[in-house]
Specification:
With about 375 residues, the chain is an alpha+beta fold. It contains eleven helices and 19 strands. The mean pLDDT is about 95.
Length: about 375
């Protein structure tokens, strides 16, 4: 894919400068590194990772890149003595490397550092393109799906732990802390876990605070400390009888399950989204199709992998869904004077249908009828 993009743009190299916190860098190199490094792919077969000297031996052992070089190998420290400024020395090191390998034009992703891009732009042809690894990451390999399954399993365990806490907890903060601590002990990092109750739940991304009221949205989306893979799961828990909230929850549950039943290899993303809208509209709720500021006010889902939000987007778009894609289905309804509800599962697409990776009861009550 990368050589083809280089040919299309008449370029010789694609260059990334990032740490492994960047999902595309980590996907491309398979190397965990805290500080930025250069990853360079060329039309001549170049597959090169440039790291600090202290990371070189580890990169040779752990990365999946063909060739490893250190900044020392490329003369960075001699240039630093001359330039005095580390940024200037880094820029010239990269430029000299590209030039000596016959580079006349390079492609860079949108998040490429500006100080490097400005320097190179003055000396060669530079074009910004969408990072091609974003597309490569959309369809997951079998081992990636397995990692997302592991994260999904941990989420379900943490949610069951949260249900036990909910019977006694007084505040959203208390439940959130319990979930995140539980996951950390299991080997997962969870941040800004949504535990939102009462009217605050009408804002989909309000993480919640204060007293737990008649219902609570719990949205858990951790990543594995080891593999870096996320999963995503939401349930709305009913703590007291509330007829309006209960009807909303029944509607989004039906919408989620109807949409999931239609997922298959070859379906178009907007068909899944419109299915959710139709179910909710038939029940009398507003959706984003009518440009409403209440009701369903977000897309139906998003891809999940090395980022918690990545491609594909399940919305009003023409993306063709393919076997191996992993994404969420998460219809919700939000009304400022009532509150909000949401149910969400992460699924993997199969040739016929899909598999729910976060399978759990949809309708959860913790009160006696």
């Amino acid at each position: 894919m990368i050589p083809e993009i280089l040919r299309q743009h008449d370029a010789q190299f694609f260059v990334i400068y990032a740490s492994s916190k960047n999902a595309n860098f980590f996907y491309a190199t398979g190397f965990k590194i805290p500080d930025p490094a250069f990853y360079i792919i060329g039309d001549d077969g170049t597959d090169l990772l440039v790291v600090h000297e202290m990371e070189k031996r580890r990169a040779e052992r752990e990365s999946k890149v063909k060739e490893i070089a250190s900044l020392k190998d490329l003369g960075f420290y001699e240039l630093l003595k001359e330039k005095k400024n580390p940024s200037d020395a880094l820029c010239q090191t990269l430029f000299e490397l590209i030039r000596t390998h016959g580079g006349r034009k390079i492609l860079i992703p949108p998040d490429f550092p500006s100080f490097l891009s400005f320097y190179l732009k003055e000396r060669m042809d530079v074009e910004v393109v969408k990072n091609p690894f974003s597309k490569l990451r959309v369809v997951k390999r079998r081992e990636e799906v397995e990692e997302i399954k592991r994260t999904s399993d941990a989420i379900i365990k943490s949610f069951e732990h949260a249900l036990k806490i909910l019977r006694k907890a007084k505040t959203c903060e208390e439940v959130r802390n319990e979930i995140e601590l539980f996951l950390f002990k299991e080997g997962f990092i969870a941040e800004d876990t949504i535990v939102s109750s009462g009217l605050l739940s009408a804002d989909p991304h309000d993480i919640g605070r204060g007293k737990i009221e008649d219902h609570v949205i719990i949205d858990i989306f951790p990543r594995s400390k080891e593999s870096g893979y996320y999963s995503d799961f939401t349930r709305t828990v009913l703590l007291k009888k509330n007829h309006e909230i209960e009807e909303m929850l029944e509607a989004v549950t039906e919408a989620k399950n109807t949409a999931i039943s239609k997922i298959r290899d070859g379906i178009v993303a907007k068909e899944i989204h419109y299915t959710v809208c139709e179910v909710l509209e038939e029940r009398g709720y507003k959706t984003i199709r009518s440009k409403s500021s209440e009701g369903l006010i977000h897309s139906t889902g998003h891809g999940v992998g090395l980022e918690v939000h990545e491609e594909p987007k399940i919305f009003e778009n023409e993306d063709v869904i393919k076997k191996g894609m992993v994404f969420t289905i998460e219809p919700g309804l939000y009304y400022r004077k009532v509150g909000g509800v949401r149910v969400e599962d992460t699924i993997v697409v199969k040739a016929k249908g899909c598999e729910i990776l976060t399978k759990y009861n949809d309708y959860i009550t913790l009160y006696s009828s």
